[in-house]
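Handout, page 2. Input:
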Amino acid sequence: MKTIGLIGGMSWESTVPYYRLINEYVKDALGGLHSAKIALYSVEFDEIEKCQSEDRWDDAAKILADAAAGLEKCGADFILICTNTMHKVFDQVQAAVNVPLLHIADATGEALKEAGIQKVGLLGTRYTMQQDFYKGRLAQAGFEVCVPAEGFLAELNRIIFEELCVGVIKEASRRFFAQAIEDLKDQGCEGVILGCTEIGLLVRPEDSSLPLFDTTVIHAQAAAKRALE
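Output:
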């Protein structure tokens, strides 16, 4: 079994499901007392968020690159960045280590292909929804990616950072996400990517009129599969 390296803590609320999902997959696959071999480096999220909001992405990349190097020294065979937004610095982090990183958008793309989805909606932080580092990677893989109308973006971002990242779940916010999904459906989307690892803590399948692709679940299961190859 390969050792999985996790760069977590962005936020820790969504890192907990990674650990659980990976171990559940390994348990189901192997039975008995089997569990996953995992090394976790959990960063200080306030430090990362300040780098994001102050447009200091190189500083954020250095923090994650150091984390990745530490995981490599711990024996990780491959590494996951347990957040969508910080894949903006994926290339810098990959350049810092000799072991491969498993890109969350690549794993999501595979899930979309398996489901026969071509036009897909994307929900996430304002960075993920508005910048090209994530949408562009999916577009290169052949997907048409849509985001909600401009009027939704600021509130979706606020809910993620001010509520979900600190463990606050509100019904009003769940309804707002459902409205954003309806907007994506009106744009002709066939499914919706929950492109922030915290969104799955709030939005359930029954809250959506479209199939949901929870990147936390997809990324964690892809890691578990690779570990067992």
